[in-house]
Amino acid sequence: MSSSPPTLPLFIRLAGQPVLVVGGGRVAARRIERLIKAGACVTVVAPRADTRIQAWHEARRLVWHERAANAADVDNQRLVFALTDDHVANADIAAAARAAGVLVQRADDADGSDFLTPAVVRRESLQIAIASDGTAPTLARILRARLEAWVPRAYGELATLAGAYRERVRQRLPQSQRAAFWLRVLDGPIAEQVFAGRLSQARQALDHALETAQTAAEGDTGEVYLVGGGPGDPDLLTFRALRLMQRADVVLYDSLIAPAILDLVDADAERIHVGKRASRHTLPQEDINALMVRLARAGRRVLRLKGGDPFVFGRGGEEISQLAEAGIPFQVVPGITAASGCAAYAGIPLTHRDYAQSVTFVTGHLKEGALDLSWQQLAQPGQTVVFFMALKSLPIICAALQTYGLAADWPAALVIDGTTARQRLVVGTLADLPARAARLTIDGPTLLIVGEVVRLHETLGWFRPAGVPEPDSRT
């Protein structure tokens, strides 16, 4: 563990400022590229130089002295980078820089540096810097790579848009109102228009928002985000889902939402459990719909978080129908449905050129104790049938498929708590799967997959959570 004190994160303006780089290798070239973009006047001192440095010198974007450095080189510099592979040379340059009152960074000694260069994610004028005080630079680079994927490029356009209106906002609104105004702009419908590539509409909306800002009522209508939370693994959330989860004021969530996913919601958001699992409903569907309307009319940003995809046996269509009727703005964010997520984690491809040329999603939910389905169509070879909410109706399903023509030894599997660390796979046939399931205690969400593709799990199964027994088709 480093004994150096923690650093203070700063962004420094270097346009037109003299900066010395001692060393001409790849590390130096990476630093120099960023310095040139910042507008610094770069001087490089090194006997040899990377081809990029030579090209910049020939293009007069920097000055290169083709020799070893000396103490006089640090005079009148704003910053010094000692980036050679010679420990002694770096130490000498660092000592000379400090004697001249110039801050220095050494490539070979983070503790011996006055400043560190962070890993940076840049979106035009917006920059995100990641550093570890020199203790784990590789980890900082890993986080930068992840943020590169997580942070949409459009955030740079949003920052540019805000910059273009900054002075107008300052002139029109008193200081006490500016923060709330910018929060509505940068974390609301205008921002979503930018993310969707509708820059012209975003500017028009921002003009209107600025014109009406002083008379806008706090009771303006809010918005509802109908978001699919996927089958359970938080890594399967979409970028858009995560962004809206962080924006919401209040979240209405179902029982099937994994705690790890709910933890990603803004910590200050109000959480309301509305149930909806099998036959155990905390709130009837009509009450959930009315609650969303009431909260949005109170100006709240409402996150309706549902497992899987809200439009695949999630009653999402019913919910947004009432929102549309009430004139409530809403967005729909699809999620990875349990069928594709759980099948993939179980090593069961839903389609396969040799076994299944189509796939059908079916609800297995009993209505008044019966299951009225098109059994003749479902009991066909050459396809995969996925039953949602099928645990209670498993014996009925397996018997009906056999009655309408599928063989007793036709492959079938239950995926329990799919995509999570608790995932279990129960593999069998239409004849014996109900008995296998009856011997187990099953409380998690369960998906039934029927078809010859089930056999492929033995060779394609890749996700094997620690402590969970392997599926055994003979027990």
UniProtKB/TrEMBL annotation:
Could you say which EC number(s) this protein's record lists?
A: 2.1.1.107, 1.3.1.76, 4.99.1.4
User: Which CDD domains does its entry note?
Assistant: SUMT
Q: Which InterPro entries match?
A: 4pyrrol_Mease (IPR000878), 4pyrrol_Methylase_sf (IPR035996), 4pyrrole_Mease_sub1 (IPR014777), 4pyrrole_Mease_sub2 (IPR014776), CobA/CysG_C (IPR006366), NAD(P)-bd_dom_sf (IPR036291), Siro_Cobalamin_biosynth (IPR050161), Sirohaem_synt_dimer_dom_sf (IPR037115)
**Domain named Siroheme synthase central: which ranges?**
123-149
Q: Where is the active site?
A: D254, K276
Renumbered to this chain, region (Uroporphyrinogen-III C-methyltransferase) spans 222-475
Enumerate the spans annotated as Tetrapyrrole methylase domain: 224-433
Q: Output the Pfam families linked to this UniProt entry.
A: CysG_dimeriser, NAD_binding_7, Sirohm_synth_M, TP_methylase
Positions carrying Phosphoserine are S132
**Stretches the record annotates as Precorrin-2 dehydrogenase / sirohydrochlorin ferrochelatase:** 1-206
Role this protein plays: Then it catalyzes the NAD-dependent ring dehydrogenation of precorrin-2 to yield sirohydrochlorin. Finally, it catalyzes the ferrochelation of sirohydrochlorin to yield siroheme.
What protein family is recorded?
A: In the N-terminal section; belongs to the precorrin-2 dehydrogenase / sirohydrochlorin ferrochelatase family.
HAMAP family annotated for this entry?
Answer: Siroheme_synth (MF_01646)
This chain's protein is named: Siroheme synthase
Q: What is the lineage of its organism?
A: Bacteria, Pseudomonadati, Pseudomonadota, Gammaproteobacteria, Salinisphaerales
Q: Which gene encodes it?
A: cysG
